[in-house]
Amino acid sequence: MSALLVLLTVLAVVVVLGGLWLVATANRLDRLHVRMDAAWAALDAALARRAVVARTVVAAAGLPAGQAEALRVATEGAEITPRPERELVENEVTRLLADVDRHRLPAPLAAELTDAEHRVVIARRVYNDAVRDTLALRRRRKVRYFRLAGKARLPEYFEIAEPSLVTEGGRPTPRTAARVLLVDEKRRVLLFNGRDPGRVGESFWFTTGGEVADGEDLRSAAARELREETGLDIPGDRLVGPVWRRRVEFSFDGRRYEGDEWFFVAELTGAAEPRIDTSGFTELEVSTVDEYRWWSAEELCDTAETVYPVQLAELLPELLDSGWDGRLRSIH
Predict the structure, then answer these.
(1) Is residue 183 domain-shared with residue 305, that is, in the same domain?
(2) In this structure, are 308 and 204 located in the same domain?
(3) pLDDT tens sequence across 123-160
(4) Cα–Cα 20 to 30 A to 126, which of 15, 81, 118, 217?
C-alpha cells in the first residue's frame, strides 16, 4: 500500500510540475506575441512616417516629373497594400528614395528623410528579433503538441533591404538564382551554413544553389550548382519543379540585391548517406560557407537558428508528403 501511495504521490507531483510548466510556457508565449504585435505596430508607424516624408520630398524637391510620379505612386501603394504583399512595395519605396539626390533637398528635409529611414531600419530589426524569439518557442515539440499557441497565426519575418546598403546609383543588383531542395532517404534536406562578410557574428542556413549564368536556363543552372556544391551529378530532367519562387531584396557584403530564386526538388535514393564533395566551391563560397548538415523537418521546426527560405520548415513536409501538384508557389 505504501508503494502505491508513493507512486501516486510521484505522479501527482509530475502532473503538477507539468501543469505549471505548461502555464508558464503559455504565459511566456503570450508575452512574446504581445511583444511582436507591439514591434509590428512600431514598424508600421515607422513605415508610415517614411511615407509622409517621401510625399513631402515629392512636393518640395523639384524632382523630375517621372521620378516624382513613380515615388508618389509607390508611396501611396505602400500605405494601402495588404501585409502579405507589403515587402515588395516597401522595397520599391526604398529603391526610389535611394535615387533621390539628397543635395537638392532642403537641409532640414534631407535630415528628416535620413531619420525616417533609420527609424525603419531599427524598427524592422526589433520586429524581426521578436519574430525570431516567438518562432523559436512555438517550434518546440511540446509547445506544438499541446497547442499552446492556440489559433494565433505563425509569425513571419518582414524582409526588406536596408536603405543604407545601396549599389552605385541607388539601385539593387538583379540576381536570378536556381536552388535545389536536396532530400535524402530519411526525408532530410541538405543545408549549408554561411555568413555575410559585412555582418560579423551572424550566420544562416540555406539550400544549395546559386546564380543563373547569362543564357542558362533555370533547370540547367540548378543541376550545375548542385554538382559544383555537392559533387552529385543529377541530370536536370530529374529535378522536380520549379516548385517554389522566392522574390526578396537582401544585402550581402555591403551590396543590395534584388533576388529572384527558383526552387527545384531532388530526392536521393539508396540506403547509404551520400558523400558531399564541396571541392567545387568558388573562392567566395570557401570563405563564407562554414559547414553543411542534413536537417529533418522536426529539427527545422525546433531550431532557433536562421534558415532561408523562412517558410522551409512549414512547407517542406507538405511538399514531400503530397508531392508536387505542378503549380508554382510563391514563398518567403
Answers:
(1) yes
(2) yes
(3) 988 998 888 888 888 877 777 777 777 777 778 888 77
(4) 81
